[in-house]
Amino acid sequence: MKNILFNTNNDLTGLVTRLTLGLILFPHGAQKMLGMFGGYGFTGTMGFFTNTMHLPWIIGFLVIIIEFIGVVSLIVGFASRIWSVLTIVLFLGIIFTSHLDNGFFMNWFGNQKGEGYEYHLLIIGLSIATLINGSGKYSVDERLL
């Protein structure tokens, strides 16, 4: 089981995909967990998820954990396959609950009612690549095996 979860191709592909995912998603997770980058922090985000979006508290909690703890784990290359699967599930949920009705394209020109899901598909694609390849070079997973 340890080999399945932590096995990694010792190459730069895993490094590039996990760092790209991690560095793009870190500000979003830091907003939700720490209130950085103009975010509301853990309490404010939980309030938004449960009171405004009417999500169960466990879903809001998992979103915050995946976007913060999971992203930090991706950056250091720990259990990248697990965090990739959770990121895929998270972003599929985001697409179907918040962005599907807005179409494919991002709202570059401010003429849509909201953002499309093209960004989310890119995150899912990078997560699939990380899932297939593993953490790559310079990762905690590389050291564990």
From TrEMBL:
Keyword Cell membrane: yes
Topology in membrane: Multi-pass membrane protein
Entry's family note: Belongs to the DoxX family.
Residue stretches spanning the membrane: 55-75, 82-100, 120-140
Subcellular location: Cell membrane
Protein name as annotated: DoxX family protein
Keywords: Cell membrane, Membrane, Transmembrane, Transmembrane helix
Key word Transmembrane helix present: yes
Gene Ontology terms: cellular component: plasma membrane
Originating species: Flavobacterium soyangense
Signal peptide: none
